[in-house]
Each structure stands twice: as C-alpha cells, then as structure tokens.
Amino acid sequence: MDRAGVTRRRVLISASAATAALALPFIKRAGAAEDKRLVVYNFDGVLGQAVKDLWIAPFAKKNDVTVDTITMTGSSPPMAKIKAEIDAGRPDADVIPMQLTDHVFATRNNMLQTIDRGGMPEYANLYPQFITDNGPGLIIWCYGLAYNTEKIKTPPTSWRDLWNPAYKSKVALNEALFEQALQMVNLTFTGKPTPVDDATFKHLGDLKPSLLTLWTTGAQAEQLLRTGEVWITPLWNGRVFTLKDQGVPLDFVVPKEGFFVRYDPYCIPKGARNPGLAKEWVNFICNEAPQRELAEKLYYASPNKLVRYPPELAKRVVVSSPEVLKKAVTEDFAAIVDHLAEWRQRWDAWKQS
C-alpha cells in the first residue's frame, strides 16, 4: 500500500432542481458555489470503483453536486501530506477514510473535526462500537487466511499452517500492514498479538523457507493468487471472495486462534472547505441501502444494524453479527503507533537477514 502519489478523478452527475430538493434537510447550506462541490479521498482498484458507483454517484445525482475523488494507492491516505495541508489551513479533501493507525496519528495531531452524534441521523442505526468522535467506521474487513483450494486439499485451520513445510516457497505475507503480520505471528505462538519481541522474529525467521514474497497492495496479492504462484497468504475476506466469484480456486478461513477485524473511520479534516456537505455525504453512506449494496458486491460488512445478510452472504462478510465480532482479536492501535518505528526497523532487518 504505497502511501505516495495520488491521482484525481471527477464524478459529475447533474439532476433537476426537483431532485436537488431531495437533499437531506439536517445540514444547513449557505448556497455558495463551493457548497456544490465535495472532495473525498477514495480507494484504488475494485473497492474504489464500488465506492464511486454505490456511494458517490447516487449522492451526486440526488443532490445535484460535483464529487471529486483523490485516489489513494493502496488503502491509506498520505497522512504527512494531509497534516501539512491542515496545518496550513488548506486540506485538499473534505472527507478522508483512514486506517485505525492513521486515525490515532490524526487525533494526536489535532487534525480532525469532531462530529456531533446528534447531528448525524443515521448514527441511530449504527452499532455504537463503530462510531468514533470523528466519524463512522465503515467497510468492516476481516484478516484471515486465503488459500488455493486446488493446491491445498485439506483446508487450513490455523495461522500455524503458514509454517507447513508442504507449502515451501508458496507463502506470502503483507508488507504494507507489517504490524499486523507481526501480531499474527504472536497470536499463532502465544495466543496474544503483543508484545513484539525476539521470539516474534525467531518465528518469522523459521517462516522464511516457506516465503515466496512480500506483497504491498491487495492488487499484488490478487495477482499472486490468480497465477497460482502463492498458495496461501493472510488476506482480506472481500478480496478473496471477489476473486472466487471470478473463477479463481480460493477460499477464506478464520483461523482457530482468532482473526483481525478493522474498519475505516470516515473523517472530516479541520479546515475542510465544505464540512456541511461532507457531513451530509457521510450520513448518506451510513444508510442501509448503500451499506447493504457494498456488502453484496464486495463482501465487506456494515456497522448498520438494519443490514441483513442471507446465509451465504453472512459467510462471506464474516462479521455478520455482534456474536461473531466477539471472536475478533483486540488490537491496541495507540500502542501500534507508539512502537511502529521500532517494529519497522526490526522488520527491515529481518528482511535483510
């Protein structure tokens, strides 16, 4: 997930004045020209296109507004660049989805607006654990094991299967979220994600004979699985089932030691040019219909309590109920941020060893 380099794409959909009148009433607009334009960071690849189709285009059409997107390479916005823009009073986007480690960085640096929960009608329909002070946590994704069902006849059941000698040179790990890879190693051998220590890297050293490569974007992981170069890798549930629907012989399992669950807080930076329209869009995408449609298309779960999953879809979104969520491993994102530089140094040394 390269955090550099953004490209702009524009979505402009015009509708009649009557359609524009359907805009949500709880945000008071000034009526200025800039109130008709929203700028949001968006994902690349299939997820980014789905967000455009299901969340951006319908809102733009309904409210007769222009929505510009800044495409992130990978799934994390360029936080240092955004901080510099906010410090200068000129953030280039009105809404920024960010990973939970990015959210810790942003809150520590006073980069985000506080969103009044009473001013967001759809918050009433969200599970409270997915509401932050700065925005809702959307696109709930699970981190488990993806495996090739033609090459691996007996489904894996544990993270420890990555160390299986039968998969020599057929395993890959996530370089971009290396901190989650480190926590996975600990979870495998100690039952807890931390602390990251000498034992963590000893186990990683033992894994090296099995490793073919480290991937840095979901698109790279997908290509490795498509070609059959990699038989097994930690990956996000949504990408696995999307590939499976395309005919790639894959399946996804939740390891017995537990699985990781993350989501993306959709936040409004301080100094945003159009915070009113930003809040209106964030409230819109929290609705049952946009949330259900994304789950049906890409299998990422929703925090909206009104979304119902048929049995097959529930299997694919994984986090289909509060009961399932109880099986998720708790991550301390503040501690991850505090130790990230140290972990990175040791990770890089391990790669070179």
Number of strands: 12
Anisotropy-based shape: globular
| Low-confidence region ranges | 1-33
SS class: alpha/beta
Strand-residue fraction?
15-25%
Approximately how much helix is present in the residues? 25-40%
CATH architecture of the largest domain: 3-Layer(aba) Sandwich
Q: Which series of helices and strands comes N to C?
A: EHEHEHEHEEEHHEHEHEEHHHHEH
Ends distance: 23 Å
Major sheet attributes? 7 strands, mixed
CATH fold label of the largest domain: D-Maltodextrin-Binding Protein, domain 2
By CATH's scheme, which homologous superfamily of the largest domain applies? Periplasmic binding protein-like II
Q: Summarize model confidence as the mean pLDDT.
A: 89
Task: Give the number of domains.
Answer: 2
What's the CATH class label of the largest domain?
Alpha Beta
Task: Specify Rg, calculated over alpha carbons.
Answer: 21 Å
Output the number of helix runs: 13
Put the structure in a nutshell:
This protein is an alpha/beta fold and about 350 residues long. It has 13 helices and twelve strands.
